[in-house]
User: Fold this.
Amino acid sequence: MINSNVFDYINVLDKAADASWTRNEIISNNIANVDTPGYKRQDLNFEDELERALGNSRYKSMDAKVSDLKDKHLEARVVNDYSNFSYRYDKNNVDIDTENVMLAANQLKYQGLMEGLKSEFTNLQSVMKSS
Assistant:
């Protein structure tokens, strides 16, 4: 992280972990509403927002892109996913198998993000001890 503030990366990891936690709640809500007529599954668009924010500065280094993110608010929005699509006659579009796979994948992502945060703080602690 040369020429970068370590907290820039920590802040992005923190926002990603928060988004993953929120997605976990949304997927759980989808599962709870699997039998609710007319219910449309929901999801979070954090990755799209992050990609858009990082992609706006094409010719910058990753350190510069991450540093620029502190000026932007990465706000993930809850969106209805495939709202015109239904699996059943009652207009519900939640597939329990898909939701369970997405829940497991999201939990792995969250664990990875938490390990990344832990690693960043361990590195920071090592630097402070050697100073």
Observations:
- Residues 96-130 form the longest helix (35 residues).
- The longest strand covers residues 42-44.
- Strands lie at 42-44, 78-80.
- DSSP finds four helices and two strands in the chain.
